[in-house]
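Allow me, if you will, to draw on your knowledge of protein folds for a short while. A protein sequence and the structure tokens that stand for its backbone fold form the material at issue. I would ask you to consider whether the tokens describe a fold that such a sequence might reasonably adopt. Thank you for your consideration; the sequence and its tokens are set out here:
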Amino acid sequence: MDLIAKGARRPSSAKTGHVELFTRSELLVHRGRELGLAVQAELRKPWQALHEDLQRGAWAGHVAELVERFTNPGDDDLAAVFDLLDATFCRLCEEADARLVVRHFELKLLEETGFRPELQQCVLGDEGIIAEDQFFSHAAGGVVCPQCAGRGLGQLPLAEPTLRVMRHLQRSPWVQLRSLRVPETLHNDLERVLTGYITWVLERRLQGMDFARRVRHLRSPHNLGKNRSRQS
């Protein structure tokens, strides 16, 4: 349900700070004909790191955009998606590897909304996938083995280490992933495959992902060094 919180921007309002972006609050809502009216708000989780760290906030924006795109206000049961969103925002505040948190979220959201990519067997030949480099098909929704490669359109190379980590992220709860160390090159490949697939499913460019990438680029050691040189 869409709703408004009248007067929330006024400094003297009791709702100020309780209905900000990336906060979890409990609201008392009066239902209107078209919009709900939030008449009372109580803060539950401030997720302060998402406000203080630009990169983590950018990832949170990407996560929120995906939830909005993959769900509809009239959906009957969004409890699992809400719990996933809540847990992901907490992890973005607490965990060292925010990109791993986001990749785990993406795979779990795809599963919850019916777009789970097939990573265990070839989507064209149905045979099991062995430990070697494969291909990934956006249109077919999963891995294509080398023997079937070329039978469909839009197949991208999928390195065996990338597939192995994707499988681990897809089947495992977060508690089993916290100690995983993913090198930068593998992170980039995971992002390439999943962003491509999600973009194909949604048929639209992901603005939150674009912004998160720009922030990461600007904050890279190379660019930070260039900025310091200009300032000096």
